[in-house]
Design goal:
This protein has about 270 residues and is an alpha+beta fold. The chain has helices at about 5-35, 40-90, 95-115, 150-165, 220-235; strands at about 120-125, 130-140, 145-150, 165-170, 190-195, 200-210. A six-stranded antiparallel β-sheet has the order 3-2-1-6-5-4, sandwiched between helices. A hairpin with a 7-residue loop joins strand 2 and strand 3. Residues about 1-5, about 240-245 and about 245-268 have low confidence and may be disordered.
Length: about 270
């Protein structure tokens, strides 16, 4: 099996070499062409055109190879997560540790795939419905580990959960009535997705980045896929508290709202 790290290293070397060699060749050929006449000049001009075309072709070829290698690397890491999920399905009695691994790998893969400055976190809605607890994160952040329902940030997460759809926050400074939740440090843009297993709410997946346009190319289906992975993870090996609903105290008799996924005492 190919080594993605080694392949990336060789691509960088080739790009660096091509950046120096091809412009140098083109300049040298142009210098010689200016000193000759007739067919010799035409030959050198054609050689310069060929050199420039080769540089363009090589750049496109390297870009295509790089994209292909990135997809392979992404697929290998995603496959590792799915293997953990398969193991979890057969060993629910040992769920907590494996669920923690899946959550950490999932949020890390999503963040690193999106960009070097992106961050990601999953906040699980506890079975009591009283708070959201961070159960997986990637990147440095100032966000709290727990957000209580009834407090501003906890209510924002609750609102996102109740919306039941992915919300793209283009600019936290110009929210236009939308949630402005991010993971701290005044990051400008974010994507938030409710995590549901069937009709049961399991939490919220949050992806953010420093600049307004950093997440503009992120497709909603990618975020939904990771939200579904986290939903399956939370549902596996757990016992839903059918009496605890979103935003209500444990023991409520209401059954119309989605349920939560994990007890406060569990650590991922």
């Amino acid at each position: 099996m190919s080594n993605p790290q080694r392949a990336r290293k060789w691509r960088r070397i080739v790009v660096l070499g091509a950046t120096v060699i091809f412009p140098g060749l083109t300049f040298a050929i142009g210098s010689v062409a200016s000193q000759v006449n007739g067919m010799a000049r035409i030959s050198y001009i054609l050689a310069g055109v060929a050199t420039s075309s080769a540089a363009t072709y090589l750049a496109l070829r390297i870009k295509r190879k790089s994209n292909s290698a990135q997809l392979v690397e992404f697929g290998e890491k995603l496959c590792a997560i799915m293997e953990h999920l398969a193991w979890l399905a057969e060993n629910p009695e040992e769920a907590d540790e494996r669920k923690g691994r899946i959550r950490d790998k999932a949020v890390t893969l999503l963040a690193t795939h999106v960009g070097p400055d992106a961050r990601c976190a999953f906040y699980a809605l506890e079975e009591s419905g009283e708070c959201f607890h961070r159960r997986g994160s990637s990147g440095n952040m100032q966000a709290a580990e727990v957000y209580a329902v009834g407090q501003p940030h906890g209510d924002e997460l609750l609102y996102i959960t109740r919306r039941k759809k992915v919300i793209s926050i283009q600019d936290n400074r110009r929210a236009n009535g939308n949630p402005t939740f991010n993971l701290g440090d005044d990051y400008r843009t974010a994507i938030v997705a409710p995590v549901f297993a069937g009709d049961e709410a399991k939490g919220v997946l949050i992806l953010d980045a420093p600049k307004v346009d950093d997440l503009s190319d992120v497709h909603e289906s990618l975020v939904r896929m990771f939200a579904n992975i986290l939903a399956v993870t939370q549902a596996a090996g757990g016992h839903s508290n059918r009496n605890g609903t979103i935003g209500e105290q444990k023991g409520s008799s209401s059954s119309s709202s989605p349920q939560s996924g994990e007890t406060p005492s569990r650590n991922g």
